[in-house]
Structures are given as structure tokens and as C-alpha cells.
Amino acid sequence: MRLVQITDCHLHADPEAPSRAGFPLRQFQIVVQQVIEKRPDIVVVSGDISQDETSASYVLAKEILASLPCPWFWLPGNHDQPELMEAVHPLHREVDMQGWRLLLLHTQVSGQPHGELGAEQLAELVERLENDVRPTVIAMHHPPLDVGTAWMDRIGLQDREAFWQSLAAYPQVKVILFGHAHQAFARLQGFGDHVIGVYGCPSTTDQFLAGAEHFTIDEASRPGYRVIDLHSGRAGNAGWTTWIERVDL
Fold first, then answer.
1. How many structural domains comprise the chain?
2. Is the pTM of this model over 0.90?
């Protein structure tokens, strides 16, 4: 099973609108074309699909994502309007992945750059994990840990400690994918007697400079996406392989 993560497209209603360092729609199209060559089974777009929060920007995204040869799913980021997204393409909470499952969490706090899950969603997450022991991938927009970029770490997931506590009894959680950081990130997080892979992904548009104290564009980096190959097995020994692909413009 091959899962591909795309994130932080920041599209506008105007197809020609620029970003700080490029042209979001054009770059998004190139990324999706290269994703197609990887023959994914499922694609997840982990938030900030829109920059200007318009219905037209989501329509543009859907038109391009429709070229994928597989099902695709999206979740909202801090720049998104979930109601407009839902009107264009459904928002899912869970996806079956042939022995694995994908849980999509909503971390958006309306009008704020940081993220939160909240007590109700965390309780629901525990219930979902309690009732299904299949190996699990969790996708969300905001990083659930520090990525080492000071300004970004201040606007990550605010209730991260409660999130990690919610996972403590559930070793079937194998992989966590996040967006928001506009940079590659990988950490194997030791967690009791098991390990969780926690991964960030390059944006399809501007990249942020890793390790920066203040907001800084990484003009030397390129858009990209993440590939995750999920290997079958029982919850205790199911494995995965993941890597970043960069795109030449």
C-alpha cells in the first residue's frame, strides 16, 4: 500500500496569483503530475489547500487532484474554510487502507495560526483506537512536536501533551503525518515500548527555512511530497518505509 502526502498548496482563486517565491497553482500541478508517476494507492492533502479562503481555490485544487489514479482525501489547515472544502469534496475522518487505516484529525482553530485538537476530539480518538487494533496512520495539519524552527514551534499543536497521552496505550499507531511546517522533517519518537514515526512534508509552494528564529523563506529548496509505503503485518510488527521527493520546476 502506497500513501502519498501532499501539503500546503496555498492556492488562490486567480490561477496566476504568485506566492513569495513562485506560482502556487503551477507548482501544485507539477507536483501532482510527479505523484502520479509514483502510482499511489491513496493521496492525503494535509491542509492549507487555499491561501485566499475562496471556493474557487478549492475548485482548482479538485480539478487537479481529479487527475490522480487513486482516491484522495484532504483535511483543513489554518488557512482553510472547512465548509467550502466540504462543498467541493467530502471531508473524511477515517480511510480503510487494506489492513492499515488512516485517521484524519482536525487541528484548525478558527482565525488562529496555531492548532488544537480539543478534549472532545481527543476522547473520540481514544475511542476509535480502543475499538480497532489495525496499524494506524494519523494525519493532521499542525506539528504535534517541535520541529526546531522557533517561530513555527510557537504555532504548532498547542495541546500536544494531551495528544501524546491519548496515544500512550495504543501501539497500533505507527505513523503521524503533519503539514504546516513547509519543510521535510523526520523523527522516530520513542513511546513506551514502541516507536512512532513522525513526519513533516515540503510544501507544494514556498519552503520555510529549517532552524530559523523568525519567518524565513528557503529560496534554495524545492517543492516536494512524501511517499509512505505501508507493509502488511499484525499491529505489533507492521512496518513502513518513507522518503521525500523533490520536484524540479
1. 1
2. yes
